[in-house]
Amino acid sequence: MNISHNETYLKIEILSNGVVFSDSALRYALQVGAKVQNNIYNRPKGASLLRPQELLIEYGGYETVVSCISPLSSRDPVEIDYQNHRLYVKNRLLIDGVSISFVLEPDYYKRILSTGEKVTKYVSSCGYDELNIIPWKGCAINQTCSFCGVNTVARTANAYDDARSISNDIQLWLNHEGYYISSLKEAISIALQDEVFNHHAHVILISGNLSDELLNVQSEIYSRISSAILPDISNKSSEGLIAVMAPPHDEAHLALLKQSGIKIVVFNLETATLATNQVHTPGKLSIHKDYYHDRLLSAVSYFGKGNVWSNFVLGLDPLNDLLETCDRLLSMGIVPSTNILHMDEGSYVAQLVPTADMIINFSLSFNHLLKQYGYKPYYCSKALRTSLTNEAYENRIVFCD
Ligand code: SF4
Fold it and tell me: CA-CA-CA-CA torsion for 169, 174, 179, 180, nearest 10 degrees?
């Protein structure tokens, strides 16, 4: 039997079943200024733009954040109501002592740059304390991944702000880059003064990808952004700058990324086997069958063991296949992690969201591997909103015979 602490139990219930809000809970969200969907690279299927993005769950002094993912029709979604001045869960037991609140919109979301643009055009927050830098919207991969709706939410992007337009005419980006970087630096300096980053910030440079033939160019752009912003983030970033991207074609570009000051590169495999690659990440596979694996391995010699990461979507692979792949990566100094599959607008994946038992069993086994190799989970429990890796590491899920 496995036991979760009450806050982690509720997070697992939400991630495996989805969550719905009563009208009074939604009115309360509006009243307190809950952070709503940022609509930059994903949005839960069927969600309005005013749906709260995340919940903060606290129990016994431990805090975790969970994404307000879409309810699953075949499951029993967690129902959140607001009565007697508090949010509460209507249809789950075993959550005595748990306190729930909305993650609020940070103050910097309201701030305006000297150019007249909103700070959020350049930076935004996922979870409580991530600072996401997203240079362009959308993804120009030749076939999108099954679980990803990035191009659906990017539909309204301007030409210079859209991966597909930039890929058709790279000059669009190059003309705009100086303006982008100076605006980004101002946005970062405003955002990092916000109280959500009092403790630390997980600073993540992340985007969909330019087209396959431009992946070296994407590395060059990322490197120039990194060199420019490093002085602005060094006091607050807990990991240094993390770059989530498709790997470049050439080794020289891995060296360039390293020289630019990026501390950790993240080349996401998303799925563990060739069979699931073919179904869920056809665009990544089409560059070359071993493209991501080869570049991950090469990156270790530039960034060092533990500073090359690769994420997976939990639910796409049989759990044993995924654990075996994680074991192999860890043995090479590459740190994997998992986000639990959730249904986003524009995705075409079938509902393969793992059950609570699957999530718990995987999290415990994965945590055992992580500790065996001496690595830690990414970020923290208030940043990773669709993952249980931190909770397992911090013994919020306990294996009992
Ligand atoms: S590579 Fe796949 S997961 Fe990443 S942004 Fe493009 S479509 Fe989405």
Answer: 70
State in Å, rounded, how far the first CA of the chain is from the last one. 6
Tokens standing for 22?
């009563």
Beta pairing partners, 340: 314
Q: Average pLDDT in the 287-310 region?
A: 96
What would you report as the CA-atom Rg of the chain, rounded to the nearest whole angstrom?
Answer: 20
Q: What residue's CA is closest to ligand 1, atom 5?
A: 208
- Percentage of residues of the chain with pLDDT beyond 70: 99
For the CA of 148, the closest atom of ligand 1 is 8
What's the whole-number average pLDDT of the chain? Answer: 94
By alpha-carbon position, which residue is closest to atom 2 of ligand 1? 145
150 lines ligand 1 (CB under 6 A): yes
The verdict on the CB of residue 277 being under 6 Å from ligand 1 is no
CB atoms within 10 A of CB 317: 23
Q: How far apart are CA 259 and CA 271, in angstroms?
A: 30
Q: Evaluate whether the domain defined by 111-377 bears CATH number 3.20.20.70.
A: yes
Whether pLDDT at 371 is above 90: yes
pLDDT, tens digit, for every residue of 136-158?
999 999 999 999 999 988 887 78
Task: Quote the ligand 1 centre to 280 CA distance (angstroms).
Answer: 10
* Per-residue 3-state assignment (H helix, E strand, C coil) for 230-242: HHHHCCCECCCCE
Q: Taking the domains of the chain in order of start, what are their residue ranges?
A: 2-102, 111-377
Ligand 1 atom with least separation from CA of 207: 5
What is the tens place of the pLDDT at every residue in 17-73? 999 999 999 999 999 999 998 777 788 888 888 899 999 999 999 999 999 999 988
